[in-house]
Amino acid sequence: MKKVKIFVPQSVYSSNLFSFVILLCFLTASPSQLVAQQNVGTEPTFKIYTDEGEVDFKEGISADTKQLFIQATSDESDLAYRVASCEVTLVSGGLGLGSVRSTATIDLEKFLAEYELKDGVGVLAIKIIEYQSKNAVNEVETFKPKKNRFYNIPVKKAKGK
């Protein structure tokens, strides 16, 4: 939300008409318009975790990983975010094998069990579609990332399988 400075001459400022216009604007505005949004201009940082900890994008994950968790964080301590929607696509041998939509918790156990990894390797391509945050009047707002947020995680066939 941009702040705009308006210079009003003292004679107009003290008039009853000016007071009436300000009161009218105040009464017709919604609460979310009256209170500045906390999260304007800020966008969260997304981190992806398994049960063992943060995902190493170079090493990847094992095909027997049960779940992934996407955490949306901010440098500002008073802002809290969560992933509302993401799309996960499994790619192996240059082909998209399947996709699933999810929230911040992705159940990989069933999803990876459905597909055969070509040569035992693949990539999980995760796209963040929407995230949410509460505004200054404690209402949940949904946002789309300003830039496309894609994360590619190598998947390797579990040892001994």
SSE layout and pairings?
Blueprint: H1 10-13, H2 16-28, H3 31-34, E1 45-50, E2 53-54, E3 61-62, E4 67-73, E5 81-92, E6 95-102, E7 105-107, H4 108-113, E8 121-134, E9 140-143, E10 149-156
Parallel strand pairs: 3-10
Antiparallel strand pairs: 1-2, 1-4, 4-7, 5-6, 5-8, 8-9, 8-10
Write up what this structure looks like.
It is a single chain. With 161 residues, the protein is an alpha+beta fold. Helices cover 17% and strands 41% of the residues. The protein is built from 4 helices and 10 strands. The relative contact order is 0.20.
Radius of gyration: 24 Å
The low-pLDDT segments are 1-13, 23-27, 30-39
Number of strands: 10
Shape: elongated
How many helices? The count is 4
Strand content: 35-45%
Biggest sheet descriptor = 6 strands, mixed
Helix content: 10-25%
Compose a concise summary of this entry.
This protein has 4 helices and 10 strands, in the order αααβββββββαβββ.
